[in-house]
Amino acid sequence: MSNRKVYHVTQNPNGTWKWKAQGGQRASVVTNTKAEAVSKTTGMAKNQGNSQVIIHKTDGKFQEERTYGNDPYPPGG
């Protein structure tokens, strides 16, 4: 099993956006916009290496997944 760090970008009930490590108790960062939360999360994930960012829509449903580092399924060229 992979020890990939997984982070979720979701919206708070008050309209702000957060990113939180999967299984974490508290958000690592809270921002006013989704774009800012995604930017900060992906930047951190790229620097960390073996990580994954899961971005959610405003309703909490899955929107997009981004993996960095050792991608288990890289697309063909």
UniProtKB/TrEMBL annotation:
Residues 58-68 have a biased composition (Basic and acidic residues). Pfam families: DUF2188. Residues 58-77 are annotated as: Disordered. InterPro entries: DUF2188 (IPR018691). This is DUF2188 domain-containing protein. It comes from Salegentibacter salinarum.
